[in-house]
Amino acid sequence: MINKIEENGIMPDNVNKKNKSSALFWYAVCFTGIFSLWAVINPDSLTNTLWGWVYKYHDNFSWFTIAMPTFILLSCGALAFSKYGKIKLGKANEAPEFSTFSWMAMLFTAGIGVGLVNFGVAEPLIHYLYSPQGLPGGFDKVEAAKNALSLTMFNWGLPAWSIYTISGLVIGYFTYHRGAKFLPGTPIEEGFKDKKWGKPVGKVANIVAAGAASLTMAASIGLGVFQVKNGIKAVTGMDFTGVGSSIIILLVMFAIYTIAAVSPVQKGMKILGDINVYIAVAILAYVFLIGRTDFFMGTIFSTFKATFTSIVPISFENYAYLDKGWFKDWPNTTLIWWISWTPFLGIFIARISKGRTIREIVLASILVPTAFLIIWFSVFGGYGLFDAIVGNGEIVDYIQNNPDDVYLSFIMVLQQLPMFPVMGTLFIILILVFLSTSATSAVISLSMITSDGVENAPPVRTIIWSVITTMVAFANVVTGTLNGVKAVAVVIGIPYMFFLFLSMSGMVRQMRKDVREGRV
């Protein structure tokens, strides 16, 4: 019967879709598997080779990387306040699927993840200690501290969220306004239909995106395992080490994010996002009120001003006449790391932003998270800096003596305050839920990508990607190859910058065409 249908040229769409999704699934699995096996079999080779490639890129194109997010931020602003800003992702009368609070909670927790805890205290101190704008640059301690928070917010604030926002807009416009598929390559394929290279480049983008999503998320899960171990040890005094403890933590996280991922987004992801925000705000409010509130308020105001006034100076500072070790390891590598998150975050942001206008998405998803992060880093990073300047310097000494394991610094802040058993327990829960939220968004996006871009992917495909991502994370935790997997994510992020700019161009081309033809 099937042969007869094929002879008549009437192949059902579901057969074609199944073949396409199966092919993309296996391409993505092979892509992920190659780098994962390399990491396990010969981790030194993987780490040295890929970081070598990354630093060669930095040597020649660090000027482009540091300026890139500011260009994207300006592009987002231009879209929001132009005639295109009123375009809604969806039908003209379509209401948003989620409340503004839940939408923002999902955006924020999926986009930041466990890094908010990993680097909330550590990153400002690292810039304070090692950046040309810190102590090595001859600045006094107070100015070095202010500059450190300014540099931190450049890495985590407006630039980072403009990258995430544009990645969601380019996919959301084509899927909800043009009826296209939820695929990273869709803006390239659809936006450049008139070009012979549009379709093949879009397909390559899909494969690279799936691999990037899986490996990037596996690295984040692996880092989170160590954070949970640190938290349990600090709270209970138990030496929670060994493979067995890693398996227990991974199984708990696997259960949380798999259940959330196969549940409707309105339930699973929404609930995790809301819980994350409640716990994060509770810990933040506690430290703010119990700690040096007057100092924190001054730091918040100072950091707020610097966040908006230092973007251009930082974007055009390449430290041409100085040693670039810090510059390569932090601003450049961090910004590319954000790019490596865009393949799955773009799809996820598009998926939850239905019914909202481009202007609303740009303003809310860039300004609101940035405002929260200003407070977060001013309080936690500010606490660490205050301790370094007028305190006993315990936290900054730890970071100097443990440059490859700075993650304990967040717990050290909580240990210096009352009620540590309670706040430490909340900290462990926050890590687990933060990781689970990011992992949920990743496996949802992966299942959508490898199911030919359907809005609601089959639960089986979601479970498969959840298992694959967890297995990669486990293999790298056990073998200690997380640095190699991080290198894979950064390497993938470099060419993905090219795909992102093509996607932006494709969206603008399509918007102009739609306006000319009266479709918007």
Describe it for me?
The protein is an all-alpha fold. The chain has a single domain, classed as Amino acid/polyamine transporter I. It is 78% helix and 0% strand. The chain has helices at 2-7, 13-41, 43-80, 100-112, 115-118, 122-130, 141-156, 158-177, 186-191, 198-236, 243-262, 268-290, 293-309, 311-315, 325-352, 358-390, 394-401, 409-415, 420-449, 459-479, 482-516. The longest helix has 39 residues, at 198-236. It is a multi-pass membrane protein.
Q: Tell me about the largest β-sheet.
A: none
Radius of gyration: 23 Å
Class inferred from helices and paired strands? mainly alpha
* Number of DSSP-assigned strands: 0
- Beta-strand percent range: under 5%
CATH architecture: Up-down Bundle
Succession of helices and strands = HHHHHHHHHHHHHHHHHHHHH
Question: Roughly how many Å apart are the termini?
Answer: 44 Å
CATH topology descriptor = Amino acid/polyamine transporter I
Q: How many discrete structural domains?
A: 1
Helix content: over 70%
Task: Determine and state the CATH class.
Answer: Mainly Alpha
Keywords: Cell membrane, Membrane, Transmembrane, Transmembrane helix, Transport
Pfam families: BCCT (PF02028)
Protein name: Glycine betaine transporter OpuD
GO molecular function, one term: transmembrane transporter activity
